[in-house]
Amino acid sequence: MTALANNQTSKRRLLLASDRSDQSNELASILRSVGEVDTVPTSDIPEQPGRDLSGLVVDINLRSPEAVQLVRAKLQADAYREMPRLFVLADALHHGTMQAWALGATDTISRPLQPEAILQRIRAAFPDTAAYDATDRGKTLNRGVEAAHAVLAKMFERMRAGEPLKFEDIVAAESKILKAIKHSSLREWLTTVGCHHVGSYRHCLFVTGFAVAFAQHLGMREDDQRRLTRAALLHDVGKAFVPATLLEKPGKLTDEEMEEVRQHPRRGYEALAAQGGFPPEMLDVVLHHHEFLDGSGYPNGLSSNQISDIVRLTTIVDIYAALVEKRAYRLQFTHAKAFSMMEEMGGKLDQQLLQAFRPVAFGHY
User: Fold this and answer.
1) Which sequence spans correspond to the domains of the chain?
2) Residues forming beta bridges with residue 88, ordered by sequence position
3) Are 230 and 166 in contact (CB under 8 A)?
4) Do residues 97 and 218 make contact, with C-beta atoms less than 8 angstroms apart?
């Protein structure tokens, strides 16, 4: 650690913004082992960061509406968009990570402070990046779509025939998907998918595209982007066990048919749980992506803090994708109309997270 600190001290200059009475002295001491640290109150975060500033660390009380509003206003500026932003959270705060993402965090860490964990996050904010050849973007995009399609083929065709889907199948595809959207654009991903895929395949590919673009917009670190990519790609796995005639029916479903379709989260969960090897958070998304914060969703009628951050995010991109897709029984909605409809859902969705999704929904069309 000492050698790394010596090598990086001259390169890193960090701004620590704190609303704690002790000015986050313990945290500042830890950060000084990897660089120079300037400490200011959260109210004094500058509108324009200095050019030599390497990153921003925000030690904030997320229960304070005033502090939250102040930080949100500062970090929405373009000046901070490319800068790593580490938020330090209270360990007992429910869904603090989600709120921090919505405020502009690119990474989070919780109290009690673990020095090595904090230093690891700081180092991770400055990865070596290889130059990217823009002429390869078309190939990269196609490789990503093909990798995602291969997973869906195993999901919708082989599982239906009784063959298992392995966690390794999803992991093998995720890097190509992330690279495709990062080095092309969400617009190009959706256009390619829309030209060549229909039905449940297209929906899962749309949801994956929106989820990855949202994660990259929020500045999530790469392992979180990978977790969300896997969950989004797999969220509708239970539709492999629903008759295709129902999924593609052009008219309104009967009550019995609707009940059959609504079984897909549980069927997908049970299939993957029986196979084993899938992380709990992926199973959580598969089972609960139709739950609403007001308890009106299915299959378990979960509400409020029972619904995890990754499920909240997946639910938003799932609904948005469904609204902007052309369906057998209706034309697609415009992006503005779809977003407005979701705002009108009020307490069913995490509205703070939905507003954080707005630039993704409107920024690529």
Assistant:
1) 10-124, 134-362
2) 59, 109
3) no
4) no
